[in-house]
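User: quick one
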Amino acid sequence: MTDIRVSKSLNSLRGIIEIPPDKSISHRAVMFAALAKGKSLIKNFSSGADPHSTLDVFLRLGIRHNFIDEKTLEIFSEGKLQAPTMELDCGNSGTTMRLMTGILAGQKFDSVMVGDESLSKRPMRRVIEPIALMGGEILSQEGHAPLKLFGRTLHGIDYVSKIASAQVKSCVLLAGLFADGVTSVTEPFVSRNHTEIMLKYLGADVTVEGKKVSISRSALAAREIDVCGDISSAAFFIVAGLIVPDSDLILKNVGLNPTRTGILDVVQKMGGQVEVLDERESAGEPVGDIRIKYSQLKSCDIGGEIIPRLIDELPVIAVLATQAEGKTVVKDAGDLRNKESDRIAAIVCELKKIGAEIEETQDGFVINGKTPLKGGVEVETYHDHRLAMSLYVAGLVAQKEILIKDFQWVDISFPEFLSLIDSLD
Ligand code: S3P
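Assistant: Done. Structure below.
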């Protein structure tokens, strides 16, 4: 267990930072390469524990890999999976468990997926139900892991999801890859679409019409996949750069898929100085560099269609709002309670300890700014990497040092976090 102390940044944050690989895209790269016959090359693969859980799951399904260096690996596949001889451990990773549910439901073998304490508390009915409609069969512990999946013949469905969730959408689409007929998913707002982009890039029969995505049984091609930087990791530096006086940062190689860039829209609405430079494309995904400068910020309202486009950034956006003049209201974000922790309760409780004026609502929070964060307290991380990093950013502007308990959770998505922060000093 690693507790760390953070004190007010006396220097401005200046410099150039290479943003580490995207977690969502890294998971998909491994999964889809494992389904493609031949040798795939994945470049810039995440060092986070979550994508490594996906890699370990595929080892138990007979898929071999070879790391050429820390972030480059080859995946070798016959284009089909082998029956596992032991449980598939998804660790802390919701993306692994929910997307694998789609992949495993239509196989010719049975499998069991388990997760850690936090993952075992997260809701799985959202994927069990559509898979059952496709003819799949999954046993759970009242909607939670462990999940026992019985290999079944699946048929396509036209599924209308009540929630905008890329994990649900991807689960159904991946099951559709092995199902008879056409499988469609419609969601209330468009969630991250990395599955659709990468499946198309690898030759699958995918069509998108507004909020509806359809797929038919397809063989995937083994190709090179270059993973871009993670805007959800960049978010901590975006907020730090905006609130630490005189900062001026360039964040290199950031994924700019519009289904993920809600944070940039919020920063612009708040009057923050943000500029996108050198836009380009990588494996079908838009990518660019982001320049961010210390800014005087004003509050804004956040809700509706933008929520899935910034869902993982809301804890650090809460920190940002404490430094913006006026009342920031976040609503329609009830699903934040189902993440690695109940992120609404957790961020409200911990930021209050530091001195923020923040109140919890059923589906979000309300923040009155600009508040000096007093600090001088201990804060908890709730087994949640994004909580840990958000609190670190708050510590950079707190008047007195804060002690962050169990900071090691950061390794789930961003093991490089502290060394990148230190590189700016
Ligand atoms: C993810 C989707 C989101 C996000 C998670 C990663 C993905 O979850 O919060 O960190 O890779 O598909 P939901 O689909 O549950 O919103």
